[in-house]
Design brief:
Elements lengths: L3 E4 L2 E4 L13 H11 L3 H7 L3 H7 L17 E5 L7 H7 L2 E6 L2 H10 L6 E5 L11 E7 L5 H4 L5 H10 L2 E12 L4 H4 L28 H10 L4 E8 L7 E4 L6 H4 L11 E3 L3 H8 L5 H4 L2 E7 L11 E4 L9 E8 L2 E8 L5 H18 L7 E5 L2 E5 L4 E2 H28 L20 E2 L7 E3 L5 E2 L5 E2 L4 H15 L3 H5 L3 H7 L4 H18 L11 E3 L1 E2 L2 E2 L1
Parallel strand pairs: 2-5, 3-4, 3-6, 4-5, 6-7, 10-22
Antiparallel strand pairs: 1-2, 7-11, 8-9, 8-11, 9-12, 12-13, 13-14, 14-16, 15-16, 17-19, 18-21, 19-20, 23-24
Helix pairs in contact: 1-5, 14-15, 15-18
């Protein structure tokens, strides 16, 4: 038997522990423990490129739960907290969190990492052996269900473990399950199976594997249904549930062009790439098959119907930014009406929400209220914004290029530069002055943030305004961002992007000055330490076709 002790403000209770520490990544966990004891988490992330360091210590892991609708009165049971990667996010939003971890060493790491959380208790042991004496509003299984066969020794381990979890739910409580899809597109394109380290194990239904198992969408839905979870709301984290940047739902699935966009992928090892994962996902979207081939699932479920209006239909998390600009974005649909909520990921980001609200007022004066989506703060942590329904200017450009080629794209870009960048100035100015300074330019005025409407267009996002950048920068920044998101377009048009820029008549000196300014802009607004963890891809050439 273990003991009860405190690490900081966290109570660690090992009095019911009957299990052996069977799950470990070896000596690296001793290193992780030393890192969190000394408060060196950020330093380690920036200096150590090993996957376990990123996986266990990165704040970005919290994206999978940071948007969940938790109240300060809620009690949460986190089963399999590991090294506490998402525990802190739950503690910040809920009234109390009880975390269960089978590994004493990982429980200690989790406690040190979250030692300032006075509303956290960590129980060491196998959930099946514990008597917690509580029921909960929310129970989470983040990357845990796949291992149930290792610690639930029954004929139906996954079913029986889910039934055991249900006993801890209050009436109306919710179970949150995050798990890989064994048929995820990354596996078809050559990524190694996350748990076995071999190619195609999940697709072939784990031949010879006894310690772990993931499921297809239909298999998981049936498993949950049989275990008593009749109400299910499904989400699809991309690139996966470990480091999700975008979380779509059945009510808000991605478009083909969105899937081709600039998603950042952070997988755990080098990989073979048989063909392009993004292009493959984009091709199956129109067929209605995205939910079957998404890399990961997140399911919010319960005994009864889950109230969908309390849950967002889409979530985006800007984890790649410094703390002062780190926001999440969620789209809700209530009574048939959609709204957008931006929320601060930390106290440091609260002033940025107030800045966005003020930016909206400035742009409304410049463009007119019919051209700017409304926004207002409802709390110091949440900004509510108008949802703009319509064709994005990015989609408009793609369609113009596909219909009329280079000339169609040039026409669309000219409209953007002459009408949208200048706003009401276009009604009075006789010429387009690229060098005009002194007014506020929306640096966030990219094609994805502008929608074509009955009034011509509407700007939906305006996080950053600047008087230091001119119309030329605003125009080129939008075009360059479009290029980064849709680099596959230029081979289809039969031109290179550089040749396209030259054809627009942009002087080389102006372009070089813009690129230098663009680099400085990104260095200020984005924190790319996760780029250090990107793994090498090995394209596979088959009969002359290269991925």
């Amino acid at each position: 038997m273990g003991k009860r002790h405190c690490i900081g403000k966290v109570l660690v209770d090992a009095t019911q522990d009957k299990s052996e520490d069977q799950y470990s990544e070896g000596d690296v966990e001793d290193e992780l423990l030393a890192i969190v004891r000394k408060g060196r988490r950020e330093e380690a992330l920036r200096q150590d490129t090993r996957w376990p360091v990123l996986y266990h210590l990165s704040e970005e892991r919290q994206n999978i739960v940071s948007w969940l609708p938790l109240e300060k009165t809620d009690r949460v049971l986190e089963i399999g907290c590991g090294c506490g990667a998402v525990t802190g996010a739950l503690c910040r939003r809920a009234g109390h969190v009880d975390a269960v971890e089978i590994s004493p060493r990982r429980a200690e790491i989790a406690a040190y990492r979250n030692q300032d959380c006075a509303n956290l208790t960590i129980y060491v042991g196998n959930l099946n052996d514990l008597a917690l004496g509580q029921t909960y509003d929310v129970v989470t299984l983040i990357g845990v269900l796949e291992y149930a066969i290792s610690f639930t020794h029954t004929q139906r381990p996954f079913h029986d473990f889910l039934v055991q979890c249900q006993r801890y739910l209050k009436p109306g409580g919710r179970l949150v399950v995050a798990i890989e899809n064994r048929l995820g597109m990354k596996y078809w394109t050559g990524a190694f199976e996350d748990h076995t380290g071999r190619m195609y194990d999940g697709i072939l239904n784990y031949p010879g594997v006894r310690h772990v198992r993931t499921f297809s969408r239909q298999e998981l839905a049936h498993l949950l249904q049989e275990a008593g979870y009749a109400g299910q709301q499904w989400y699809y984290p991309y690139p996966d549930y470990k480091f999700p940047m975008d979380i779509h739902s059945d009510r808000y699935l991605p478009t083909s062009d969105e899937m081709r966009g600039s998603f950042n992928e952070t997988y755990d090892r080098e990989r073979v790439e048989v063909f392009s994962e993004k292009e493959a996902l984009a091709s199956i979207v129109p067929a209605g098959l995205y939910s079957e081939f998404a890399n990961s699932f997140l399911v919010v479920c319960g005994r009864e119907t889950v109230d969908a209006e309390k849950l967002p239909i889409y979530v985006h998390d800007a984890w790649y930014r410094p703390a002062a600009y780190r926001l999440g974005t969620a789209i809700y649909e209530r009574a048939g009406k959609r709204t957008v909520e931006k929320f601060a990921r930390s106290d440091a980001a609260r002033p940025h929400l107030r800045t966005i609200e003020e930016n909206g007022r400035i742009l409304t004066k410049l463009y007119g209220k019919e051209h700017v989506a409304a926004s207002h703060l409802i709390t110091q942590d949440t900004l509510v914004c108008e949802y703009v329904d319509g064709e994005s200017f990015s989609d408009h450009c793609l369609q113009a290029a596909r219909t009329d080629g280079v000339s169609g794209l040039v026409s669309a870009l000219n409209f953007f530069a002459e009408q949208i960048v200048r706003g009401q100035e276009a009604q009075t100015a006789t010429s387009f002055d690229f060098e005009a300074l002194g007014r506020q330019y929306d640096v966030d005025l990219i094609y994805d943030n502008v929608y074509l409407t009955e009034d011509g267009y509407k700007i939906s996002d305006y996080e950053f305004l600047s008087t230091q950048r001119c119309q030329l920068f605003a125009t080129l920044h939008a075009m360059f961002t479009f290029h980064l998101h849709h680099s596959e377009l230029w081979p289809q048009l039969g031109v290179t992007f550089d040749a396209f820029v030259n054809a627009l008549g942009i002087e080389k000196s102006d372009w070089e000055a813009f690129l230098a300014d663009e680099k400085a802009y990104y260095e200020h607004l984005q924190d790319w330490y996760t780029k250090r963890y990107e793994r090498i891809r090995h394209p596979l050439q088959i009969e002359g076709i290269t991925s």
